[in-house]
Amino acid sequence: MRLVLLGPPGVGKGTQAKLLQERLGVPQISTGDLLREAVARATPIGLKAKTYMDAGELVPDDVIIGIVEERLAKPDAREGFLLDGFPRTVPQAEALAALLDKHSIPLDAVLALEGNEETLVRRLSGRRVCSSCAATYHVDNAPPKVEGVCDQCSGSLIVRDDDRPEAIRNRLQVYARSTAPLLDFYRERGQLLTVDASGTAAEVFEAVWAALNRAA
Ligand code: AP5
Fold first, then answer.
1. Which among 72, 138, 150 is the best mutation to test ligand 1's pocket, defined by most ligand atoms within 8 Å of the CB?
2. Which of 100, 105, 33, 110 is nearest to 67 (CA)?
3. CA nearest 1: which of 111, 53, 115, 79?
4. pTM above the 0.70 mark?
5. What number does the ligand 1 atom closest to the CA of 197 have?
6. 112 within 8 A of 195, measured Cβ to Cβ
7. Digits of tens for pLDDT over the chain (216 positions)?
8. Which of 15, 125, 139, 209 is the most buried (most CB within 10 A)?
9. Cβ of 201: how many Cβ atoms within 10 Å?
């Protein structure tokens, strides 16, 4: 399965990508996670990306396209992948199409998760991530067993810099301006599946699975 997960910040792309990864056995490729790793390792790309990310702005297309191309070339992506957070602009979508065409690899579907602004803000402002292993929690919807402590590695849970109110506001505007046009881009190509993501993570996963099966 080769899938793109599309949708506004906080709608649950990462959460659903992890569930799909378990079910399908193909890797989740999250450009947000790849960038955060680069920031943590203070690589040249990480140092360049950090200012954009903290402000909720998009990292320049050429940087992101290079990262994705490199990641898709790894052996674990040969049998399939779940792109989470890429593409996010029309030039990125065009670059992905060109890359897949070059290798004669078809994209099975683009799954757009939908949620209203109130839900998105609630999910983003309540999100906590492990500073050590990057596992994701939510203070109300998916709390850790012990407050502030990661269930998986006992690392401390923190608020992402871009989950602060000003950055959230900006990310939502950037999504509307730069990423929402991709819905038409993929709809016109007959590749778009939309799923209401307002339910619980398990309910959304059921709807995602049903949509993928209907389209297969
Ligand atoms: P990225 O990390 O991709 O951020 P995002 O798209 O804004 O997505 P999020 O990770 O915030 O949300 P999500 O939809 O994955 O939701 P999640 O499952 O975590 O990108 C960060 C930054 O990197 C960008 O701003 C940009 O600067 C840069 N970047 C990345 N890709 C780029 C690209 N292609 N081009 C340029 N720049 C790029 O869920 C959120 C919370 O809600 C969690 O707490 C979760 O537990 C909870 N939750 C999830 N689902 C449910 C549910 N159904 N019910 C209740 N709670 C739920």
1. 138
2. 33
3. 79
4. yes
5. 53
6. yes
7. 999 999 999 999 999 999 999 999 999 999 999 999 999 999 999 999 999 999 999 999 999 999 999 999 999 999 999 999 999 999 999 999 999 999 899 999 999 999 999 999 999 999 999 999 999 999 999 999 999 999 999 999 999 999 999 999 999 999 999 999 999 999 999 999 999 999 999 999 999 999 999 998
8. 15
9. 15
